[in-house]
Amino acid sequence: MGWTARNIPDQSGRTAVVTGANSGLGFVTARELARRGARVVLACRDEERGDRARDALVQELPEAGPRTELRRLDLGDLASVRAFAKELPDERVDLLVNNAGVMALPYGRTADGFERQFGVNHLGHFALTGLLLERLLAASAPRVVTLSSGLHALANIDIADLNSEHSYRRWIAYSRSKTANLLFTHELARLCAGTPLVAAAAHPGYAATNLQTAGARMEGRKTTERVMALGTRVLGQSADAGALPTLYAATAPGVAPDSFTGPRLLGWRGAPAPSWRAPWTLSDVAAERLWAASEQLTGVTYGVPA
């Protein structure tokens, strides 16, 4: 049968931050961590949607009410990322789930001028993790789980054009941002090798969430939106199933640093299992170059103990 949410170890006493927790995979991740006793911070860009998500979570799990909290976080605005980290009262964070993301959007820029998919999917989470690193390292067994995608295999990063200023193709830009997520995990795992922190990555396969239709909806492409929605309903697994690789990477004993967990069946659906990744996501040189560029772009540097 494989690993399910029932296998999540007791999370009592642990504090988890889940980005994009208002819907889809993030909501399921937050809910299941809360179900197993964790204190969960729902980090959401839209406070109204975040409030509804927290209400739904508490309605299902009344006992989790005192242990769930909504805080605003816009990963497309570094000022918001800094404010979130500064205002988070916890002296210790045991788990950070870098879940939020955007997919195949029309060209746009974040508040800081970055191409939107690279800025939200990678740079926002890079900055957030760095700003919370001291509190993560204060925990006895901290983890950082970053969501990538099987579609990372479509494109490597272009270190000379990280913001797609020379050309922009929405799916290539998305794939590059997901490669960046894996390179970030690779370098974070290397830098934290002498600490208890485990940096791991996961992907949901093809999960039925609203991510696939967001780009078409933004542009008013109704036919494309309907086709994508139909394909998602027919081919996609549920958000509950899609969140299992994340939950496994976040909680299962023995998860290795720089591991990549996805669905067992061809990386598409099924129970969590080790996932194939493109060779370029394991390049030390590429990871170091992306890391240096990310520090320069965000102004966030990592203080990892020697």
UniProtKB/TrEMBL annotation:
InterPro entries: NAD(P)-bd_dom_sf (IPR036291), SDR_fam (IPR002347)
Keyword Coiled coil listed: no
UniProtKB keywords: Oxidoreductase
MF terms in GO: oxidoreductase activity
One Pfam family linked to the record: adh_short
Protein name: NAD(P)-dependent dehydrogenase, short-chain alcohol dehydrogenase family
Species lineage: Bacteria, Bacillati, Actinomycetota, Actinomycetes, Kitasatosporales
Family affiliation: Belongs to the short-chain dehydrogenases/reductases (SDR) family.
Native organism: Streptomyces qinglanensis
Keyword Nucleotide-binding: no
